[in-house]
Each structure stands twice: as C-alpha cells, then as structure tokens.
Write a structure and sequence with these properties.
alpha/beta, D-Maltodextrin-Binding Protein, domain 2, 2 domains, 10 strands
Length: about 325
C-alpha cells in the first residue's frame, strides 16, 4: 500500500505541474477594445500615424483598436487621461514627443509627470522637420536666408503651431545657432501657418515632412533644408541643415506609445510585441515611409532613453520660454 500511495502522490504532483504549466502558457488577456488616444485634432500628422497603424495593431492583438482624439493643453489632456486610466490597459497614449520632451520645460504646471505616471510601451516612428519658405522669395539656400536675417534683424518671420511647439523651438534653435534675430508668429495649428507661408505673410516655417510634402510637390513652397542627420528619402533633393552650414543642428521628433503606471507588466509586454510585429508588415512599412516617416525599432527602454536625452537638450533652448 505504501508503494501505491507514493505512486498516487507522484501522479497527482505530475498532474498539478502540468496544470500549472498550461496555465502559465495561457496568453495575456487583452481588452476587447483598445483605444489609442491622440492629443491632437483629427487629420493632423499624429492622428494620421495612429490611424495608419491601428488596423495592423488590431490584427496582431486580435481585438478592436480605435483612435480617440483628445486635443488640448499641448496634448497633455490626452496624456493625463491615460496616466489616470488605471490598470486594465484599454487606454493607450499615442504620444508625439514634444509633450514629454518640450512641455515639461515650458509649461508652468503639467497635469501629470511623464516619468512617474506613465509606462513606456513601444517606440513607433521617428520624423524630422523640413524648413520651407515662400516660393517667391529670392533665397535659394539656407545660407542666403541666414545672411539676410543677419543683415536685417527681425525681418525674417516664421510661423508655428504655438509657443513651445517643436516647430517654434526649431526656429529658436536656428536663431541661436546662427546668431540671428527672427520674428516668431504663433498660430493655433500648422495648417494656418503654412497657409500664410504660401500666401507670403510669413517668410518660413518648419513643418513635419509627412505633411509638408504635398505643398513642396505642388510647388506652393520651397524646401531649403531638412533637420535630419541624413537626407530624407522622400525629399532626396533637399540638403540637411549640417550640409547647409549649420553644424550640430538636428531636430527630430517621434511617436511612442505609453500606458498608465499601473499597466501590468505582462500586458505591457504583449503590447510591445504587438506594435513591433505590426510595424514589420511590409505593406504598413511602405505606407509610412512613403509619407516621410522612419520606423523606430527598439523597446520601452529606447523610449525612456530618448525622452531623457531630449528633455535635457530642450531645457537649454527653452530656459526663457514659459507657457501657462
């Protein structure tokens, strides 16, 4: 009997081990609907990127993925909604980098702490700006524009989507690196600023390559430099700022996905893998690159490192800029 009892106990232990192994192998439960929150209005470049990726992400997760627009307060309204969303993982922030790299330096008070209140989930895309000018101006190069700005302080004007935005600070950085004085004119979005560049009310503006391409291709504005370290594949004829004689000038942005600080590690890892797999799809990759984006590979640690580095860089540029 003692031998039989030992045998029975062995069978029971084996059965329990198999059950535990099977349970451990079960996939992480993903919410029935996942919402990607965008901090800008529909139709803008961040919204465009999120909507291009959403169906591919839905396929990877086997669930519904919706894009939800929550504009306001330099996109911090969207980030705050995710920071306070809790642990269920149904809300993810499709964030553009200025809100986590520039806003902490220029906003008097942010509604959330991007380091403490959020979990980085996945890097998604990198983008760079292109400097465009009114097509009727005589400047054929950045050097000619800078020479004019030096000889005529305050006569070169540039538009932006608002004080503290990446295109505003791209102009501030150019002025600082060239020792020129330029007039900043803030707007409530990129579109009205571009309209005034086209119409000649503004000299120039920095805009994201993906949205500026149509204006450049339509001969409505002239592109004179890109802010990337190498020429952009979708604008191969446009030199970089460095090639144009402005050393150490590189201004890029990125999109990354964040969850709340309470997001369970297993679910965060599931999302990280799903975004990486979606971005490897050749069809999606071709669509994104066709409009000027660069795919950004890596994991959550890459998002953390890049955000930390860029917050420090913008701190020096924005020391005299504050937004209530």
């Amino acid at each position: 009997m003692q031998g039989f009892d030992s045998f029975r106990r062995g069978l029971l232990a084996a059965a329990l081990a198999c059950t535990a192994g099977a349970l451990g192998a079960q996939p992480v439960q993903v919410p029935q609907t996942v919402r990607l929150v965008v901090g800008y209005a529909a139709g803008g470049p961040v919204d465009q990127g999120a909507r291009m990726i959403a169906p591919y992400l839905a396929r990877e997760l086997g669930t519904t993925v919706l894009v939800e627009n929550k504009p306001g307060a330099n996109a911090t309204t969207a980030g705050d909604s995710v920071a306070k969303a809790g642990p269920d993982g149904s809300l993810l922030w499709f964030a553009a980098s200025p809100t986590v790299t520039i806003s902490p330096n220029v906003m008097a008070k942010m509604p959330f702490d991007p380091v403490k209140d959020l979990t980085p989930v996945a890097p998604v895309l990198s983008y760079y700006n292109v400097l465009v000018i009114n097509k009727d101006l005589p400047f054929k190069s950045l050097r000619e524009l800078v020479d004019y700005a030096k000889a005529n302080p305050g006569k070169v004007s540039y538009g932006s989507a608002g004080v503290g935005g990446s295109n505003h600070l791209s102009g501030e950085l150019l002025a600082a690196r060239t020792g020129t004085k330029m007039l900043h004119v803030p707007y409530k979005g990129n579109a009205p600023a571009m309209t005034d560049v086209v119409g000649g009310q503004l000299t120039m503006m920095f805009d994201i390559v993906s949205t500026a391409r149509n204006f450049i291709g339509g001969d409505k504005v002239r592109a004179i430099a890109v802010t990337s370290p190498a020429r952009n594949p979708s604008l191969p004829q446009v030199p970089t700022m460095t090639e144009s004689g402005i050393p150490d000038y590189e201004v890029g942005g990125w999109y990354a996905v964040y969850g709340s600080a309470q997001l369970p590690k297993a679910l965060a890892a599931r999302y990280t893998h799903a975004f990486a797999s979606a971005l490897k799809d050749p069809e999606l990759k071709a669509k994104l690159e066709a409009v000027g984006y660069e795919l950004w590979a890596g994991g959550p640690e890459a998002v953390d490192a890049r955000a930390k580095k860029e917050r420090a860089m913008w701190a020096t540029v924005t020391k005299d800029i504050k937004v209530e």
